[in-house]
Write a sequence for this structure.
């Protein structure tokens, strides 16, 4: 309901789905169906959800893992399938992001061929996923090379998915 109200007020949002912990496959599908419905209900002149970002549960150091023994059960193949399924089930959400931070650069590259059109950012400051054990880091140059190696042309964008020129000073900086 919060997102519906945001969209009515023309507040642009993104949508995510952390999966691979305690939910069922049916609940994953239900989540996608609900997101598609919320996006379909947005006013015609509103952006609604600009992107969908599925990411697998990161279990290292979490209370759910320590107390209940719940671990990440998402395989690379399953993640790639989630990206492809998201592209099919969410035709009204333009941008599907591969979460390189949680699945690594190699899986994210395959996701670009499976329906993702975004690899996210180099993460200037990220505390949630890294605290749960995600070991991956990128410089600006490395993420661009990763996208190029996958056969695509990297583009810098802002949070509204407008393309921008890549500033030269970002080339070699590590932010994560």
């Amino acid at each position: 309901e919060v997102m519906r109200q945001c969209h009515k007020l023309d507040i642009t949002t993104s949508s995510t789905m952390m999966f691979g912990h305690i939910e069922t496959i049916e609940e994953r599908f239900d989540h996608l169906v609900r997101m598609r419905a919320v996006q379909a209900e947005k006013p015609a002149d509103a952006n609604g959800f600009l992107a969908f970002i599925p990411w697998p549960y990161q279990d290292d150091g979490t209370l759910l893992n320590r107390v209940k023994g719940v671990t990440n059960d998402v395989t690379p193949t399953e993640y790639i399938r989630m990206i492809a399924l998201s592209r099919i089930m969410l035709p009204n959400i333009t941008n599907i992001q591969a979460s390189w931070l949680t699945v690594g650069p190699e899986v994210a590259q395959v996701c670009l061929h499976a329906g993702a059109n975004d690899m996210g950012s180099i993460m200037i400051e990220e505390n949630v996923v890294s605290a749960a054990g995600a070991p991956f880091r990128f410089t600006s140059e490395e993420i661009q090379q990763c996208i190029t190696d996958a056969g695509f042309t990297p583009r810098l964008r802002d949070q509204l998915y407008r393309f921008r020129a890549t500033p030269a000073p970002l080339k070699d900086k590590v932010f994560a």
In short: The mean pLDDT is 88. The longest helix spans residues 25-41. Helices lie at 2-8, 25-41, 63-68, 76-89, 100-103, 105-114, 128-131, 140-149. DSSP finds eight helices and five strands in the chain.
